[in-house]
Specification:
Length: 159
């Protein structure tokens, strides 16, 4: 394999984990987001903390952080990483209506953290759905995407 071409396939076409052994250690980060669209009444229940299952956003934050730390166990060929920062924040968006989840993941390492950032917002969104599904079966999770990344050979990028 050429040093300039990172791939999940070996010379025979078999799936392998990318060899990052020769890459430099740099500070790398990724930011991702997702939307959970819901009924206005559901959004208000979550905002007021009035769901019977407890504090939805606190639970979703912990679930997303824990999931990011375990991304390599969930996604085949994803490198296990020693993450230095995982943060998950939420914005109420009445115009949707819904909640925008935003994650930031950071480390000093040889590979990026996009998958960890995406995993954080995805599991956070699933947790919101799980905790509110009894009052709103119409919820949907959408627009999961990386919005920014930095560090490494490919440099910085913003959506």
């Amino acid at each position: 394999m050429s040093e300039d071409r990172l791939t999940h396939l070996d010379a025979t076409g078999a799936a392998v984990m990318v060899d990052v052994g020769d890459k430099d250690v740099t500070v790398r980060f990724a930011k991702a987001e997702a939307l959970v669209v819901m009924q206005p009444e559901t959004l208000e229940l979550i905002r007021q903390g009035n769901l019977k299952k407890g504090d939805v956003l606190a639970t979703a934050r912990v679930a997303g952080i824990m999931a990011a730390k375990r991304a390599s166990e969930l996604i085949p060929l994803c490198h296990p990483l020693m993450l230095e920062k995982v943060a998950l924040e939420f914005d109420f968006e009445p115009a949707l209506p819904g909640i925008r989840l935003r994650s930031e993941v950071r480390l000093s390492g040889k590979t990026g953290v996009e998958m960890e950032a995406l995993t954080a917002v995805t599991v956070g969104a699933l947790t919101i759905y799980d905790m509110a599904k009894a009052v709103d079966r119409t919820m949907s999770m959408t627009a999961v995407r990386v919005v920014q990344k930095g560090g490494g050979r490919s440099g910085d990028w913003t959506a």
